[in-house]
Design a protein that fits this description.
The complex is a heterotrimer of chains A (119), B (162) and C (89). Chain A is built from 4 helices and 1 strand; from the N terminus they run ααααβ. Chain A is mainly α and 119 residues long. Chain A has one domain. The model of chain A has no long low-confidence stretch (mean pLDDT 82). Chain B has 2 domains: 40 residues; 104 residues, no CATH class. In chain B, a hairpin with a 5-residue loop joins strand 2 and strand 3. The mean pLDDT of chain B is 81. In chain C, helix 1 packs antiparallel against helix 2 and helix 2 packs antiparallel against helix 3. Chain C is flat and about 50 Å long. Chain C starts with a helix and ends in a 5-residue tail after the last helix. The mean pLDDT of chain C is 88. Classes of the chains: A mainly alpha (119), B mainly alpha (162), C mainly alpha (89). At the A-C interface, helix 1, helix 3 and helix 4 of A face helix 1, helix 2 and helix 3 of C. Strand 1 of chain A pairs parallel with strand 1 of chain B.
């Protein structure tokens, strides 16, 4: 590892620390939120953003120490495109299996039958 | 133009993707990338049956920046909910009536809802006129629906003209 | 400064991975375990990127990209299996 100086040092360090904190918060949420649908919120948002921050830090680090290096951006784009899709599929699976929900969940659907996946 | 480039934005995206994957910019790579960016949409054109055109590219860029800011804010909200020990969450399953039509705009809206404050799109109604949203912590669901409509759906309607 | 930041990030991601493992073992249902696996994929990808910074090489990038793609496909396949009892319809 090459030590950086000045603004680059601060920028890379703060991106790495903020990203790691968000990813940690996402995993804490996955471990301690009460039911499946609530747990789904933590990794899709926090972990995606946290890993995105770490990858941005990596882009700045390699751009400063070596030559211009943007290809880590592909991972960030890929994660941000796929996180909603996997969340949607898992939510569908959770609703289909009729998992236990916390008792104060309000079901405000007008016609729940219109969504059921059982044909 | 239309014969050679059936999907100009897809072609541009493929070219940028190719250059990012190679991680260098040189004349040969750009020529090869342009060839790929023309050939791949031509080859896959028959399988793409969901036409969508972006009518206002600058509005689309503005929407993208707004989305980035909102993702940051939403993460701070989620972090507060996760880390504050005593707070009781009030989850709800909400039906969100759609005004926009078309597969691509609805997909973009659903992904936006999944990435922003405390909401996840769970399903679409069979007739395609409503989304089902799971909200992590909501007091007034009417207000949530109105804010999504005014903040995202109106902009998407303007961008895609649907 | 950077060296401490990278070490801090290593520790944070390892703790995150342990929490995900706990959720993976505890369950209680199959979707929970799939979600935990998906998060493990994403966190280990970040760990690989950090490892690349630590050693100052960009060679880990391809591995990270592959993990991202395989993780997504695995999650989709498992969720589909739960939904339909079948992956290819």
């Amino acid at each position: 590892m090459v030590e950086l100086h000045g603004w680059a040092d601060w920028l890379v360090s703060s991106l790495l620390i903020i990203g790691a904190l968000f990813a940690l918060i996402g995993s804490v949420g996955l471990a301690r939120l009460p039911d499946f649908m609530a747990r789904l919120h933590a990794p899709t948002k926090s972990t995606t953003l946290g890993v995105g921050g770490v990858i941005l830090g990596s882009i700045v680090y390699f751009s400063v120490t070596a030559s211009f290096s943007w290809h880590e951006l592909l991972i960030t784009i890929f994660l941000f495109l796929t996180a909603p899709i996997s969340a949607h599929l898992l939510a569908k699976a959770g609703l289909h299996l009729e998992l236990r929900r916390v008792e104060n969940t309000r079901d405000l659907r007008a016609q729940p039958k219109q969504y059921s996946d059982k044909d | 133009m239309n014969k050679l480039l059936p999907a100009p934005f897809l072609s541009l995206f493929l070219l940028v993707f190719w250059l990012l994957l190679q991680n260098t910019v040189s004349a040969g790579l750009i020529v090869l990338g342009i060839i790929l960016a023309i050939l791949i949409p031509l080859y896959t054109n028959r399988g793409r049956d969901f036409p969508a055109t972006i009518h206002k590219p600058f509005k689309a860029i503005e929407y993208f920046i707004l989305l980035m800011v909102d993702i940051l804010i939403s993460n701070l909200n989620i972090a507060a909910i996760i880390l504050l020990p005593s707070r009781r969450i009030k989850p709800a399953l909400i039906e969100y009536p759609l005004d926009i039509v078309g597969e691509v705009p609805i997909t973009v809206l659903a992904s936006t809802i999944s990435l922003t404050p405390g909401t996840i799109t769970a399903e679409i109604r069979r007739d395609g006129r409503a989304l089902m949203i799971h909200a992590l912590n909501v007091d007034d669901h009417e207000k949530l629906i109105a804010s999504i409509k005014q903040r995202y759906e109106m902009r998407l309607k303007e961008i895609f003209k649907c | 400064m950077l060296i401490y930041a990278v070490q801090f990030a290593f520790i944070a991601f390892c703790v995150a991975l342990l929490l995900n493992l706990w959720r993976l073992f505890r369950g209680p249902d199959l979707p929970d375990r799939i979600l935990a696996l998906d998060t493990i994929y994403i966190n280990s990808l970040a760990l690989l990127v950090l490892f690349g910074i630590w050693h100052g090489t960009a060679f880990y990038f391809e591995a990270a990209l592959l993990i991202a793609m395989l993780g997504f496909i695995g999650t989709v396949a498992a969720a589909k299996f739960l939904l339909r009892g079948d992956i290819v319809e």
